[in-house]
Amino acid sequence: MTEIAHGPRTAAVPGLGVTALLLGAVVLGAVLGLSDPALGASLSQGIDPTLAVMLALLFFEVRLRAVAVGVANLRFIALAWIANFLIVPVIGFTIASLFLTGHPLLYVGLLIYFLAPCTDWFLAFTRMARGDTALGAVLVPINLLTQFLLFPVWLWLFTRQAGVVDFGIVPDLMLHWFLLPFGAAQVARWLLARMLSAVAFDRVCEGFGLLIPVVTAALVFQILAANLVSITAHLNVFGLILLAILVFFVVTFGVADGLSRLFGLRYREQALLTMTTAARNAPLMLALTAIAIPDQPLVYAALVIGMLVEFPHLTVVKQLLLTKAIRGTTAWPSGRGLRDYSGKSRARPDP
Length: 351
Hints:
globular; disordered N terminus
């Protein structure tokens, strides 16, 4: 199976660099929210335009043609779908219920973070772990469309008791904030691919991909600056959120490892399954949640905390996978090998 393009353009931004960018947005938002609450509150007027830009960039990243490549490996696609949308949601619901039942808004935010698998930068970490990025590209549109269809269902299942969603407006929100922007982004992608040379189009895609973490950081900054007072009133609970996220990461890593052994996956498939179940789609979920559940900063805060710890976690997972492969505990595909983390070639050539 040949690799599709270059995976998501956010691969050009190191995971720890994105974490630093988001952490900077948190600090700046907190400083502004404390020093000038009125100015911070005024920034809330810019949240909707920022959400629109973020959604356009995320939807532009999706390559629908990649789905055709996955027909040859329906077994893995089905396994990844079951893991992401049946097994992991049960794990997330159980952990969120254990840790945050007494804090309904934070519970909703944490659960939404757990529910949605990543559709962009998980491929960058899959590549760094020498996983199958061509097959991973197939998962991007499948994961995106599935979580879009399930998002109203998740809201209905998990936010009814919190009473934070007007379900009568959900169809309109999905139409104007998902279907129309998604269609427009895909049309723009199709037109640009035909108007530009392959090199120029690749540069445009790379530039758009690099903007995703920047726009995400801008959204985090606006949300915190505008809602810091509400968020700081619950600082004592944030330790529980971090612990819950850590437990979630450990359990999902174990589940991916167990499924890989049970179904006899090759190393490259195992690395992909591990990354797709580990990485969460926090930017898209933050955008959709801010639209569907407006003026609930505690819900957003739980998602932001997840984003802050996700990239260091994925970096650790990547290194665990590489170490496991180097030690020979995982079979390599025939004719494949591994470059060690320093970039030096090992016994067999790198794919």
